[in-house]
Amino acid sequence: SSTLFAQKPESREQTRDERMAWWREAKFGMFVHWGVYSVTGGQYKGKELPNSAEWMMNRGNIPIAEYEKYAARFNPVKFDAAEFVGLAKQAGMKYLVITAKHHDGFSMFHSTASPYNVVDATPFKRDIMKELAEACQEQGIRFGFYYSQCQDWHHPGGMGNNWDKTIQRVSFDQYVRDKAAPEIKQLLTEYGPISIFWWDTPRDMSKEAFDSLHSSTGLQPDVITNDRLGKDYPGDHKTFERKIPPQAPADKYWEVCMPISGSWGYKKIDTDFKSPTTLIRNLVDIASKGGNYLLNVSPTGEGNLLPQSVERLKLIGQWMKVNSESIYGTSASPLPKLAWGRCTAKSVDGGTMLYLHVFDWPSDGKLLVPAIKNDVRQASLLAHGTEVKTRLTDLGIELTLPGEAPDPYASVITISIDGELEVGIH
Ligand code: H79
């Protein structure tokens, strides 16, 4: 493609694998959508607005001057950064990415480029991004910013607002110069180490605007970016939204971001919370295809998470406490599609460790791990270390399992194999 969307300079490209090493190891992160839209939880003038939440301003065609008033109602007194980050950590998440500015143009940090921010325009007056950056640093959680670089429904040069005709429009380039570029520079210089800069969502822009946004991430040499800055800009990793790819994608680094419920931002009426089983199996499914899971939660206007989210994060954490070895640092399954669950793999000294995640426990106790031609050194249940009997057959390895599944979400069996793993049709 054109030089407009050129790759990163050679010197940085060479270290991409190094920069991605922690991310690949981490596998699991928390995504957070939080802003002044969270005050009403998707409702406008007391009524439920379809597909609203963080899109409320757009869905309600709310004029800028009217939407600004939500800032005066944003006072999340229940927010405690240490507690919030602690919950992510307890769930087994290794990083946190939060909306520094969503499409509505409201800055959740003490922006020096726009007074429409959490310190200057709300009764709360606290720099939420700074508090989270510090809490993450303290608790060993990597920290990243989501930033809507194209759509900004508040600035007269931002994209996306076609309903407020009262504003005197300026160019997108001017919006980048006045707001986006200085804000990004501030986020990448005043908030400590930033591990991820998460662009959303790509639209056409001039070379000047692209170069300015693109070069600003160079302020933190180790920062990881996704593929949503510009149309053909690959970034460091690919982002899938809401849907898990049915097969392992060809991309070296990729993630699936997905809300824990129906929407990204807090919604008062949200009946679509995913079950703990679905959430844990999603994490396993994504890991088995070599990707990361960025699971979104939605703080309310008061700054807390709904009990449905807290409960789910804690259940995932309980599962991870026993089984995280089967997730962190693993790579995609080397096996063909498995009827009963998923597999992740790790290279170990002189061999391979396979982690079999059994979703459907066999009623006859016989589990076939297809296509493996190697003898097994050892097989055991990860939860208790109980050894599992194995037999090499024409079709692969047959395991003899106890009658009951040890885990209702996903029972993990480890298989260690000496030497090179041989997989194929017999
Ligand atoms: O931040 C989250 C979304 O707000 C944002 N990306 C994720 C991570 C996003 N921006 N655009 N889109 C997602 C896709 C746009 C979907 C739309 Fe709609 C369909 C826009 C209008 C119709 C969904 C449904 C949003 C409003 C109604």
UniProtKB/TrEMBL annotation:
Organism name = Novipirellula herctigrandis
One term under GO cellular component: lysosome
Section of the entire sequence shown: 18 to 443 of 585
One GO MF annotation is: alpha-L-fucosidase activity
Lineage top rank: taxon:
Bacteria
A GO term (biological process) for this protein? fucose metabolic process
| Protein's UniProt name | alpha-L-fucosidase
**Which residue range or ranges hold the Glycoside hydrolase family 29 N-terminal domain?**
9-325
Q: What is its EC number?
A: 3.2.1.51
